[in-house]
Design goal:
alpha/beta, TIM Barrel, 8-stranded parallel beta sheet, 8 strands, binds D-xylitol-5-phosphate, binds zinc ion, metal-binding, Ribul_P_3_epim, EC 5.1.3.1, RibuloseP-bd_barrel, carbohydrate metabolism
Length: 218
Amino acid sequence: MLYIAPSILAADYAALGEDVRKVPNADLIHVDIMDGHFVPNLSFGPDVTKAVDGVTEQFLDMHLMIEQPEKWFETYVAAGGDRLVFHVEATSDHVAAAKAVHELGVEAGFAVKPGTPIEPYLDDLEHFEEVMIMSVEPGFGGQKFMPEVLSKVRTLREHITGAKLDTIIAIDGGIAEATIVQAAAAGVESFVAGSAVFGKDDPAAAVDTLRRLAQAAR
Ligand code: DX5
Ligand code: ZN
């Protein structure tokens, strides 16, 4: 499968509902939660998540860039999150955290910052529906893609195929027409794009273009 996941971090917050409705062809909606501690920025929280959930049937992939994510799992499931993706750097027991997410009846994922190696997590992938490789330092949209993280994608792809797992490899940060091709070729299946979708006049056309480019590169 191939998933294009527009990040509403780049949407117009004064017209958030309208912007979400502009991408009915997106496979997922990526919701960036920032707490001003784990990352040096704030975004939005459970109430905005709930409002977004109220205007779309689409799957909400929750990117939790927050400290002590476990404290918030229940809140974000209640707000409409369909998958909770927490950062391994923010938890001391990522497998226990995944189990806590599953007990709430939704999918679990983990994210790694650009400088965090993937090897320590390879044997735990069976507990996760998604692994998110950050290709920028988390905290802000519109940053430059870091191609060096693609070696982690290749390692993951090899491991996931070898172990016959279904874990989805996602990439987040700096994905646009110019970068999606290399990410797809390395083995990414799910592509988060903020400015490359909502920064365009026609966000739905941008989603289609990104999907076509990714498909051709696989
Ligand atoms: C950054 C966020 C990203 C962000 C991506 O911390 O996790 O999801 O929205 O934005 P672009 O696609 O503009 O790099
Ligand atoms: Zn994100």
